């Protein structure tokens, strides 16, 4: 995988933008449809709670279909925004017809520098401007801000009782997400998007989010699905760059 692609997958927020091997099964269980909760209140409380998030772990699973090329990304990572440190492992597979290529990349980010290890080689590069306000939780906050929100039900995710929210994002936040996807080059038009966020009833932190989106890129249609889970909020894990990286 091209080193620029890997680094920007990390920092666009998928995620990030982005679960790798060992991704936990966070499928919702124990769903209740009668919810006595105001969507506006849940939205406001969630934005307040997420504004105070400084450290967390994440797992993500991204699938992209460009017709003749299918790409699968499995991501797992740790973010410490206070220390401006981040770690991510990316397992990527690209398939075209009966041909398939896979690569595993580890990336450490410290301040304004990213250390990328792929195919046995370390590379160093600057992080994009605004990287520390565009981590995976920041992207979910951007989707929720100024969105139309509906409380669908309550359900349990990884043992945590959550509100399942249907989120219709502000078009500007969706366009920003699409344009910042490093794996996409060319003129981008968002055709459709569906976002569901699962917010803890007690802490109002986002536990899980799913995204289904259809884009047109230079006349080609791209289907993208994302599932991302968050855990260990507030745990400031020590993220140390290996000696071999420098």
Structure description:
- By secondary structure, the chain is α+β, with helices and mostly antiparallel strands.
- It has a single domain (3-239), classed as outer membrane lipoprotein receptor (LolB), chain A (Clam), CATH 2.50.20.20.
- Helices cover 17% and strands 48% of the residues.
- Strand 3 and strand 4 form a beta hairpin.
- Helix 2 packs antiparallel against helix 3 (136-144).
- The longest helix is centred in the N-terminal third of the chain and has 13 residues, at 39-51.
- Mean pLDDT is 84; it is low at 1-27.
- This is Lipoprotein.
Q: Per DSSP, what share of the residues sits in E-state strands of 2 or more residues? A: over 45%
- Profile the largest sheet: 12 strands, antiparallel
CATH class: Mainly Beta
Oligomeric state of the chains present here: single chain
Strand ordering within the main sheet: 1-8-9-10-11-12-2-3-4-5-6-7
Tell me the count of domains: 1
Organism: Salarchaeum japonicum
Protein name: Lipoprotein
InterPro entries: DUF6612, LolA/LolB/LppX
List keywords for this structure.
twelve-stranded antiparallel beta sheet, 12 strands, disordered N terminus, globular, 246 residues, alpha+beta, outer membrane lipoprotein receptor (LolB), chain A
What is the structure about, briefly put?
This is Lipoprotein. This protein has 246 residues and is an alpha+beta fold.
């Amino acid at each position: 995988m091209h080193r620029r692609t890997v680094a920007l997958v990390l920092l666009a927020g998928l995620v990030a933008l982005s679960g790798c091997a060992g991704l936990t099964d966070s499928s919702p269980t124990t769903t209740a449809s009668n919810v006595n909760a105001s969507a506006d209140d849940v939205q406001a409380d969630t934005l307040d709670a997420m504004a105070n998030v400084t450290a967390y772990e994440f797992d993500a699973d991204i699938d992209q279909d460009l017709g003749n090329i299918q790409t699968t990304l499995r991501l797992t990572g740790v973010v410490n925004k206070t220390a401006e440190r981040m770690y991510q492992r990316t397992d990527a597979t690209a398939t075209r017809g009966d041909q398939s290529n896979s690569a595993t990349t580890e990336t450490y980010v410290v301040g304004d520098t990213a250390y990328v290890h792929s195919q046995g080689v370390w590379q160093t590069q600057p992080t994009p401007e605004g990287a520390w306000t565009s981590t995976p939780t920041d992207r979910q906050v951007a989707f929720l801000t100024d969105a139309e929100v509906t409380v669908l039900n309550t359900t349990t995710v990884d043992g945590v009782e959550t509100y399942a929210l249907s989120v219709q994002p502000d078009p500007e936040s969706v366009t920003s997400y699409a344009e910042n996807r490093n794996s996409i080059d060319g003129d981008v038009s968002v055709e459709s998007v569906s976002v569901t966020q699962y917010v803890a009833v007690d802490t109002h932190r986002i536990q899980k989010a799913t995204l289904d989106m259809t884009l047109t890129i230079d006349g080609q249609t791209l289907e993208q699905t994302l599932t991302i889970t968050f855990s260990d909020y507030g745990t400031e894990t020590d993220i140390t760059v290996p000696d071999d990286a420098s």
